[in-house]
Amino acid sequence: MNSFSAIDWQKKIYLNGFWGKTPKVKIDNQKLEEAARQVMSPKAFAYIAGGAGTESTMRANREAFEKYKIIPRMLKNVGERDTRIELFGQTLPAPFLLSPIGVLEMAHAEADVAVGRAAAQLGVPYIFSNQASRPMEEVAEAMGGAPRWFQLYWSKSNELVASFVHRAERCGCKAIVVTLDTTMLGWRTRDLDIAYLPFLEGKGIAQYTSDPVFKKLMDEPATGEKAKREISWQAILGLVSIVNRYPGNGFFKKLRSGLPVRAVQQFTSIYSNPCTTWGDLKFLREQTKLPIILKGILHPDDARKALDFGMDGILVSNHGGRQVDGSISTFEALPAIVETVNEKIPILLDSGVRGGADIFKALALGARAVCIGRPYVYGLTLAGEEGVYEVLRNFMTDFELTMGLAGCKNVSEITRETIQ
Questions:
Q1: Where are the alpha helices (DSSP H) in 195-232?
Q2: What stretch(es) of the chain map to CATH 3.20.20.70?
Q3: How far apart are CA 132 and CA 101, in angstroms?
Q4: Is pLDDT above 90 for 331?
Q5: Of residues 108, 166, 299, 319, which has the active-site annotation?
Q6: Among this protein's residues, is 319 annotated catalytic?
Q7: How would CATH label the architecture of 6-193+273-418?
Q8: Considering only 68-82, 228-242, 386-400, which range has the smallest mean pLDDT?
């Protein structure tokens, strides 16, 4: 039985409406996104909502879900429903987690902390972003004993990679999710049209500026292309942002130290490594006994290699359509990967999940769970922690009702025969 009743949540929404109170966050996904767009700055919305190139991958992600249809079965006695699953030794209330999304300060001042608190209320695992706006230790403290994982971007410094992993272990993360598809930034047209990258303002680098290894690296000269230094109001505002976001007190003290600017320069120099190979995973395995999940797998041969290299899980992902324009959708890629893995390790899926029916279909095709991204960021934008909580409750309710109305009492009854 679920401790969070779908019927009760649905009833609460309707009863609130009787008294003239509507939800703080829109339940319809298009309305939710539009409401967030009206609140976000143009730069923030472009970064969160945008994709690579013509954004055809984003569209493909949604279209793929819509090609499959659920086949409801009748008179199946679904009065008691159980949406719980087991994943890496943990019992989750529903088959979804929160995807790692960086630079959440662009959506709300409490950023990752607000998301962590909302997830903790429901027991939904939160995958901490490598590009978080708050250090992982701060978010972990806000979450108490609630489940969390850590997403890792492989930088040019293996020492920094190891430091991030060890910090994640110490703050209670139960798995490491290695993002493989962002060894370089994709051609993100919305961001490029306004020539904006939040990291250059010191946003989204809290894991770095709180890390002892990164602080040592700041003493080394940064490499890479040097931008022309032209004094402008935009540049001055950017410098103010960089200094304000660097840890410590005293704006002018930090400015004179030069550390905030060096942090941004060093971050842009080392944050990703296009030269990573499968062999590098051996180094990661030596650093931790936590489960390692590979995020970004889309080809069955790569899934096979994940098995060969002793990985513990796969997250079928195209980064929400933000990296490769014209890519295969995750839902289209899922069946071949499921067949290759043959239940040896858990398979998760993200990119384009927008409701309970999507979760149901992904499970029917063999995923153990899914990850939800942009919708919770829009909830964060509109109402902070409470907004994230409402989005998550809506997903949980939608999934439970869909499952029951399809004739399934629990997740194990969601099989390939339930969709066509």
A1: 206-209, 212-217
A2: 6-193+273-418
A3: 7
A4: yes
A5: 319
A6: yes
A7: Alpha-Beta Barrel (3.20)
A8: 228-242
